[in-house]
Specification:
5 helices; alpha/beta; two-stranded parallel sheet
């Protein structure tokens, strides 16, 4: 085991020893550690992660929202591209259940310890109907705009945030565009009306179109098929 991996293993062990009693779960991945924290314990745990001698996570690098409603349920919805080799693993039990996920939304935090040269991911699941979690702006001031972005795009509310307003969409925007049930083309479109001399909102007129990534393969399987087709045409 190299030094980098050993530091991650030691961090995971320390997190388990310290926070197991707080209902936290430690997940170890390839060269990364994730700490899943109950929403009610976030401020208490986050404060110790910043100030505790064993952790010293002085910097918050990012806060983002996640919508797990479709995670692991199906292949990527990419039309014919999926058949060409673009796919993902499926959680068979979740796909068979076909019901709303109890833990749909989560706030995810990425921390950096400069003094100990370590990184850590925090994940906090929130209630699907009323996604509310405490703000960590009082612990890491850099969370201010990140939490506003998660609120704007996912509708996650951060209790105690000093100025929780939309930051990327328009002030009159309706809905949260990064939620999985939000239409790709949006709900409305806007344009400037010269006669009324103001911006107007109208129903979307864009035709739905496939936005999935295309997978184009250039190997012997497809070259042989192309040659056979060409030979048949020449005959």
């Amino acid at each position: 085991m190299n030094e980098y991996a050993e530091r991650h293993r030691q961090l995971a062990d320390t997190l388990r020893q310290r926070f197991a009693g707080n209902g936290c779960e430690v997940i170890e991945g390839p060269a990364e550690v994730t700490l899943v924290i109950p929403a009610a314990e976030l401020i208490r745990v986050a404060t110790e992660l910043r100030d505790g001698e064993a952790f010293r996570f002085e910097e918050l690098i990012d806060v983002c929202g996640v919508d797990y409603s479709q995670y692991g349920r199906d292949q990527w919805a990419t039309g014919t591209e999926t058949a060409c080799g673009f796919g993902r693993g499926i959680d068979v039990e979740a796909a068979a259940a076909g019901e709303e996920r109890e833990r749909r939304f989560a706030a995810v935090y990425h921390l950096l310890s400069v003094s100990r040269n370590q990184r850590l991911r925090l994940r906090v699941f929130v209630d699907s109907e009323h996604p509310l979690v405490d703000s960590v702006v009082g612990i890491w001031n850099s969370a201010n705009w990140f939490e506003r972005e998660a609120f704007d795009l996912f509708g996650i509310l951060f209790d105690g945030h000093p100025d929780l307003r939309r930051i990327l969409t328009d002030y009159g925007f309706v809905g949260h565009p990064f939620r999985k049930d939000f239409p790709l083309s949006g709900e409305v479109e806007m344009r400037y009306d010269a006669e009324r001399q103001r911006v107007v909102y109208e129903p979307v007129s864009i035709e739905p179109r496939l936005l999935g990534p295309r997978v184009i393969r250039h190997d012997n399987r497809y070259l042989d098929e192309a040659n056979e087709t060409q030979d048949a045409g020449d005959a």
